[in-house]
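On clarity, I found the account of how folds are encoded harder to follow than it need be. What matters is that the chain and its backbone geometry are given together, residue for residue. For the editor and my fellow referees, an illustration may be useful. For illustration, here is how one protein appears when written out as sequence plus structure tokens:

___
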Amino acid sequence: MTGESNFALYHEAPRKVGIKREPIPDLEAGDLLVQTRFSAISPGTETLLYRGEFPSELLIDEAIPALASQTGYPQKYGYSAVGEVIRAGSSDMDSWIGSLVFAFNPHEEFFIAHPSSLIPVPDGIAGEDAVFLSNMETAVNLVMDGRPLVGENVIVFGQGIVGLLTTGILSHFPLNKLISLDRYPSRRQASTEMGALESFDPVGADTTEKLVSLLPEGADLVFELTGRPEAVDDALAVSGYQTRIVIGSWYGDRTATVKLGGVFHRNRIRIISSQVSTIAPEHSGRWTKGRRFDTAWKMIRLLQPSRFITHRYLIQEAETAFQVLDQKPWESIQVIFTY
């Protein structure tokens, strides 16, 4: 493969992205070459990196081999790629050629991977749906950590793509009321299409009154998925006695100043951290990451998330894609790259 090259996206500095041409190294026995078809931008995590709000003392992602050793800038990033295996390093792996696969891999045109790091896309699932696997796995994990019960009243703050997928999964539970909040009208509309009973603007003049009318005793379960540290106080404000608040947002290096002197203390409210890199200990006796992936694929079939793709850009248009996410977030739900 000497002489062949690969387009790869790099975060070069805060609010500066570029595309580099890199040589594709020769395949070794046991490796596969994948040509990327689609990759999805994670609007929460990747926008933090784009803005320079990623904690400098942390590795980018210790749980993802392709990212585990990276810190600082320049940074090759991304973890939702779908592509086709086009070459094998040895003849005994030729059966992989032509397979559609998912990988936790940065945004780039080609990549080399060991089969153990690839997840075959099940038959009948299109590539543009498969690219949602990482976010769907996150949504499944959030719901598992929240443990919704029959007849509960649930509120989801934030209807970006992870919030929407979480709402979609919750809509298939026998809840009493499912309510969401988001600042942007297009996301609120998508939320009701996903199954929310109501979706409100969190800063709307009558939102508090509407929530009190719908849930006079507060919510039983709240998900904070906005990515905004100040939303933790909003979650506390709609909580009732012994409410569970699941925080799936990652705030980067921003500090959440939380008011714990009022209802939090007296109402025995529980704040739960949810993070998809691991499985909660109470589930790990029966659940593996493989089982969670199987569940995520089932939810992809059920919810068909490709309908929430609002923007498609060539990888060479990466700068425009990140500018849209950074400067006009109300216009987008899911942004993907095509190759």
Remarks:
- The CA atoms of residues 155 and 179 lie 5 Å apart.
- The mean pLDDT is 92.
- DSSP finds ten helices and 15 strands in the chain.
